[in-house]
Prior knowledge:
The chain crosses the membrane at residues 38-62, 82-105, 117-139, 176-197. By secondary structure, the chain is mainly alpha-helical. It has helices at 3-20, 23-65, 83-107, 109-142, 149-155, 167-217; strands at 80-81, 147-148.
Amino acid sequence: MSTTKIESSVSNFEQDSRDLLHVYPKMRTIAILDSSRVFATALALAASVTVLGLSADALAVYSRTHVPAEFLLPLWPQNFDIRPTHALIATSVIVMVTSLASLAVSKTSSLRAGFHTSINMAAPLIGFIVSLISMAFYYGVNASSTHTFQSWTCRWSGVPMQVEPHFETLCQQSQVGLGLTILLVPLEAIVLGMAAYQAAMERKVDVEVSAHERKASSPALS
């Protein structure tokens, strides 16, 4: 190869590097967004697992104690609505499944290529919607005259109990479960926002890189 051709190749390489220089900060931003989104998704997963465990345990205690023995008074009222607890369980299961799917796609290269953007957008959107519906349903039932799991257990939480149902413990469990479910609403909204911004940045970088590749592959004008 002649000296002229070598100098031309070096010049073209330097020109290519300068043309792509503005893309590198965007790629760093995408990497930061991806790491932040994965971390927030992991938090949503941990919160949903905790809500599922607390709500399922409370429901199990209720199942064991809501039918009284022949000589005992009932521990639970007749106008008792257990549906809000079922709603928390259903919400936590949905958020757990969608979060696991999002994390699996993010960490599996074979899945990332085809489903990365769609799963990253769909998972927090579904989690946000079901969490919001669950909260609206929970407070709607709680505002009625019927007793819910939290209202009844917290009402009698000061009564010392040596055996189940241990109203004080159940009250604390229901409060933590409700609080974490409320936290899922803004958390999933944040994850959705980061996923949307990340997708927009990725599309922009892809367009710029594709335009550069087309320019580089086109024949030079003589």
